[in-house]
Amino acid sequence: MSPLPRTLGLPDFPWDLLTPYKNIAAAHHEGICDLSVGTPVDPTPMLAQTALHEAADAPGYPTVIGTPEVRQAIRRWCMRRNMVDPGDAGVIPTIGSKEAVAWIPSMLGVQAGDTVLFPQCAYPTYDIGARLAGATPTPVDPRAPETWPDAQLVWLNSPGNPDGHVLNLDELRAAVQWARDHDAVIVADECYAALPWAEPYISQGVPSLLDPRVCGGDVSGLIVLYSLSKQSNLAGYRAALMAGDPQLLAAVVEVRKHAGMMVPAPVQHAMVRALDDANHVATQWETYRRRRELLLDALDGTGLVNDPQSQAGLYLWLRRGEAGESAEQTFARGGGDSWSIVQWFATLGILVAPGDFYGEAAHGAVRVALTASDERISSAAQRIVGAVSKGW
Predict the structure, then answer these.
(1) CA distances from 42 to 26, 281, 370 (A)
(2) Residue 235: its pLDDT value, please?
(3) How far is CA 214 from CA 79, 84, 364, in A?
(4) CA gap 280, 151 in Å, rounded
(5) How far apart are the two ends of the chain, measured CA to CA in Å?
(6) Count of beta carbons in the 10 Å neighbourhood of residue 13
(7) How many CB atoms neighbour CB 295 within 10 A?
(8) Which of 392, 372, 380, 382 is nearest to 37 (CA)?
(9) Residue 333 β-bridge partners
(10) Mean pLDDT in runs of 10 for the chain (392 residues)?
(11) What are the backbone angles phi and psi of residue 61, rounded to the nearest 5°?
(12) Does residue 95 sit in helix, strand or coil?
């Protein structure tokens, strides 16, 4: 009897649980408005398309570390974000950021008996990456490092998916200090940093783990991940990057060489153009801002409130409020039934994601993505307003 296949002990893929609600939403006479996933729908900027075409003649294998041009573009991008320049040895392109999230613990030598910390309200792949390495995934409050158990690796996600929370300079400094006191590595997923919705982040930018005011100019023990999927609509290109401690990245590169994890040469060329151009990023920000405001206005009167700490990213993070309480009180209270909210949206032909997908701390909330066309967002807003007018 063959010993294969073996189970890795992974949880069921959560989005499969949404299928019944997707069927309800799809039956709506005006069609489904799928706001359950963060998949970009707007056109890939022409500058990236042109660059991809220019580099289409690529008969040789690309390098894992990336071309000199893409590494220099990553470094320029770091400096524009007020990050420490980690040098050529401290940057590499990656095949999207999800593969990095899933495999970094293994690439850095995390193993059975080790502990990986991640935010208690979080994208599921942080948990999965720890499990793939055989380690123990442990959710924690990212703003309270004084409560964290000993660990070998810590994930931060700011701006956060799904909740849009942003860690400020003091909170990032506290995390770095904890990691250095406990000889741990911190990896920060910052892929929504180009989408701030509140001050001071709109005018000053979302702070990075590699900001010199956070790390003291020392990148040791620190890695930042970033993706061009959101800011540049390059999800289909699988274009992302790592920046940080050259020693840690050397270990990552060694594994990636053996595994053949190389970003295609044409994609690297497109990354250079996208990283160097701020105009298309500003245009996309404005598109998402307009969609966000339209949905928030429509939700007024539903009893659903957006998290007041949701200050950046691609999602609304909603809970059902109770009479007489503020939004702050609603989110401090927590709890509730996510699926009843999912059901209500589905009857309007709108599919959203339940908080249950993002950890126990997220129960009772739903995530509403801004990544649908203007027409679908407008249709969703009109349906919500119509439901309110009928006395939901």
Answers:
(1) 22, 12, 11
(2) 96
(3) 14, 10, 33
(4) 40
(5) 58
(6) 9
(7) 22
(8) 372
(9) none
(10) 58 79 94 94 97 96 96 97 96 94 96 96 94 96 97 97 97 98 98 97 97 97 97 96 98 95 96 97 98 96 94 96 86 88 96 94 95 96 88 62
(11) -75, 140
(12) strand
How many whole angstroms separate alpha carbon 211 and alpha carbon 188?
A: 12
Q: Which residue has the tokens 């959203």?
A: 352
User: What contacts 329, CB < 8 A, 6 or more positions away?
Assistant: none
Task: Quote the DSSP letter at residue 267.
Answer: H
Q: What local confidence, expressed as pLDDT, does residue 108 receive?
A: 96
User: By the 8 A CB rule, do 292 and 370 touch?
Assistant: yes
pLDDT for the residue 388: 83
Write down how long the chain is.
392
Q: How far is CA 167 from the centre of its chain?
A: 14
Token pair, residue 48, equals 């990236």
Helix, strand, coil abundance in the chain, percent, nearest 5: 45, 15, 40
Cis status of the peptide bond prior to 5, with omega within 30 of 0: yes
- Give CA angle at 10 (9, 13), nearest 5°: 150
What is the rounded CA–CA span in Å between residue 35 and residue 277?
28
Alpha carbon distance 53, 36 (integer Å): 32
Task: Output the CA angle 128-132-135, nearest 5 degrees.
Answer: 90
pTM to 2 decimal places: 0.93
Kindly tell me the burial class for residue 377, based on how many C-beta atoms sit within 10 Å of its own C-beta (0-12, 13-18, 19 or more): buried
What's the pLDDT score for residue 336? 87
Instruction: Report CA-CA distances (Å) from 208 to 175, 189, 193.
Output: 12, 10, 8
Report residue 379 as tokens. 């249709």
Residues 6+ apart with CB under 8 A from 86: 75, 78, 210, 219, 243, 244, 245, 246
What b/e sequence results for 29-45 when a residue is b if at least 16 CB atoms lie within 10 Å of its CB, and e otherwise?
Answer: eeebbbbbebebeeebb
Please, how many CA atoms are within 13 Å of residue 121, restricted to the half-sphere of its CB?
Answer: 26
Instruction: Give the per-residue pLDDT at 331.
Output: 86
Q: What is d(CA 162, CA 101) in angstroms, rounded to the nearest whole number?
A: 16
C-alpha 187, offset from chain centre: 13
